[in-house]
Each structure stands twice: as structure tokens, then as C-alpha cells.
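Chapter summary example.
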Amino acid sequence: MKNKMAEAAAQGDQHFSHFGPQNNLFKELEALFKGYGETGRGKIRRYPCTMKRRRNPSSRSPGTFTDWEEMPGDTDLLFYEGLHGAVVTPDVNVARHADLTIGVVPIINLECDSKLHRDRETRGYSTEAGRR
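The structure predicted for these 132 residues follows.
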């Protein structure tokens, strides 16, 4: 990802991110929510660092996902813990397939983080100078 971000920056894209639509499978996520609502089934993959927290070890390294697999059957609730569970873009609308969405706000002020990053990367400030 670091290399992709550097390539994007070299091409003038200062907003490239692993959170953005170009680096996520939003259509597949929408298909999971839609399919689960209709049939109670769907294909999922897991993120190893999340699995580790739950003491479910994976042979995959952090920053990668497991292979796609069918969800277990006979469930009544899809609990999705992730960054894009209610994402709406011009191409997808995951939120319309959920009965309930809950957003969690991080403790760290993201606006302040963005300012610090901008000040360090584009203005050449030190971290300490950017905090003033």
C-alpha cells in the first residue's frame, strides 16, 4: 500500500487511501448484505488481525484477508464489524440492505490527524511544529 500511495502521489493524487473505493470491494459487500437479507446466506472473508483478537488464529499475515468462504447456515443475524458497513457511493448502497447500522466515532480527532499529516507531508513541518 505504501508503494501504491507513493505512485498515486507522484501522479498528483493526494487523496489516495486504502479506505477509498478503488481499494475496497464495495459491490461484493453490498452483495453480501443483499443476499443475506434475501436468503440468510453469503460469502465472507476475514481480516487476520480481527481474528487474532478473537483468539481465532490465521496463517495469513496482517494486512491481508482470508479466502472467500460460505457463511455458516441457520443464522438469524448478520453482525458486520468493519469500516464500510453502511457505505453509499454512486455505484453501491450497502446501507439500504441493513435493518440497523451503528457508527462508532474514534477517540482520536481525525481532523487534527489530517492537519498534522498535511503539515508534515506538504508543508515540511515537524510533528511538534504541526501540533502548535
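To summarize the output: The mean pLDDT is 81.
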